[in-house]
Specification:
Blueprint: E1 2-5, E2 8-11, H1 13-27, H2 34-41, H3 45-52, H4 55-77, H5 83-99, H6 108-114, H7 121-142, H8 145-149, H9 155-176, H10 179-193
Antiparallel strand pairs: 1-2
Length: 195
């Protein structure tokens, strides 16, 4: 992935960030060293330090990839006008995201929040911003008149409950590793939220 051109090390940033994202997702941000990032990406540590400054900066860039993809998937799953099916598709997407991979990779946001990385203000702000954007995406979908008519709660409150519940799903996935149980739990919440 890395080559020397005219004394300057150059690498494919997109490919490097993909590999770094996979590594952080698998190991967690706190447990991953810059040496690990260099080995996984095939980019020398010196080049990584020169390009980004530190491991945290690489994590933040990789997390941006994760967040953009997750939010795109969430928006797509929340299309429609019937509250029950809309929420079912959303939870199916969330559960698929955290249970994919062998072994299942879990939820990067929850994994990072629980591994000590929140001691960094930049990481805490990045995760908080992501969860706020996710809540806004869910609220916008639940605010569509036809969807809103089927809800037992106002869209803003329902969105906060839904996003908070996804964090609980992430913990249950790590503990039990049972996607079917996650789906059953989500179905119970949907029944509580939909008239």
């Amino acid at each position: 992935m890395e080559e020397r051109l005219a004394g300057v090390r150059q690498f494919d940033e997109a490919a490097m960030l993909e590999e770094a994202l996979a590594l952080f997702w698998r190991q967690g941000a706190a447990a991953t060293s810059m040496l690990d990032v260099a080995a996984a990406t095939g980019v020398q540590r010196g080049s990584l330090y020169n390009a980004y400054g530190d491991k945290e900066a690489i994590f933040l860039r990789a997390f941006d990839l994760y967040a953009a993809r997750f939010l795109d998937g969430a928006r797509a799953s929340l299309e429609g006008d019937d509250a029950g099916p809309v929420l079912r598709r959303f939870f199916d997407t969330v559960i698929a995201n955290m249970t994919s991979g062998t072994p299942a990779r879990g939820c990067l946001t929850t994994k990072t929040a629980g591994d000590g990385s929140l001691a960094s203000e930049r990481i805490r702000d990045k995760l908080g911003g992501f969860l706020d954007r996710l809540a806004a995406v869910v609220e916008a979908a639940l605010s569509r008149p036809a969807v809103r008519a089927g809800l037992a709660l106002e869209p803003a409150q329902a969105a906060m409950v839904v996003v908070t519940f996804t964090r609980g799903l992430a913990v249950m996935e790590r503990v039990h590793g049972d996607p079917a149980a996650l789906t059953r739990a989500a179905e119970g919440l949907i029944r509580a939220l939909v008239r």
